[in-house]
Amino acid sequence: MESAFEVIAEPNRRAILSLLASSQQSVGEIERQLRMTQPTVSKHLRVLREAGFVESTVDAQRRLYHLKPGPLQELDTWLAQFRRLWSKHLDALERHLDRIEQSTPEKGTATKTNSPRTRRNPNRKADKGESK
C-alpha cells in the first residue's frame, strides 16, 4: 500500500479530494467537473479508497464518494511540527520589521506617527490610485 504522501502526490487525486471536501460526489460528477474519463476517475478513487481517504455509499443506482477524515488528520498532525517552525520564523520576522520601522525616521516628515504597520496580503492587487 502507498503512503499517504504518495497517494496525495498525484495531482488528479488531490483534485478529487478538493472536490470531495465540499460535498459528496458520484463518479459521473467528478468526471464532468475535472474533465477526466470514467476509467481514470475510477482508478484514482480506488487508490484513494484503498488508502482510506474516501469511502462510498450506494444511493439508488449511484455510488457516492465522500472524504474520510482519518488519513487527512494524520497528515495534519505530521505537518503541525512544520507549521510551528514557520510560525516562529514569521513571528520573528514581524518583530524585526517592527523594530526597523520604529527606528527608521520617515523621509519628508518631521514626526512619525506611532500607528501600527499595516499588514497587506502580498498577493492582493493594488487598488486604483494605490502605489506599491
CATH architecture of the domain at 4-69: Orthogonal Bundle
Question: Can you tell me the CATH superfamily of the domain at 4-69?
Answer: Winged helix-like DNA-binding domain superfamily/Winged helix DNA-binding domain
| Uncertain stretches | 120-132
Helix content: 55-70%
* CATH class placement of the domain at 4-69: Mainly Alpha
Gross geometry: elongated
Please state how the strands of the largest beta sheet are arranged side by side. Answer: 1-3-2
So what's the oligomer here?
Answer: single chain
- The count of DSSP E runs of length 2 or more, i.e. the number of strands, is 3
Q: Give the SSE order as H and E letters.
A: HHEHHEEH
Which fold name fills CATH's third level, the topology of the domain at 4-69? Answer: Arc Repressor Mutant, subunit A
Please report the distance between the alpha carbons of the first and last residues.
50 Å
Using only C-alpha atoms, the radius of gyration works out to 24 Å
What is the typical, i.e. mean, pLDDT? 82
Biggest sheet architecture: 3 strands, antiparallel
Number of helices: 5
Structural class: mainly alpha
How large a portion of the residues is in β-strands, by DSSP E?
A: 5-15%
What does this structure look like?
The protein has a domain at 4-69: Arc Repressor Mutant, subunit A. It is elongated. It is mainly α and 132 residues long. The chain starts with a helix and ends in a 29-residue tail after the last helix. It has helices spanning 4-9, 11-22, 27-34, 38-50, 69-103; strands at residues 25-26, 54-59, 62-67. α3 (27-34) packs across α4 (38-50).
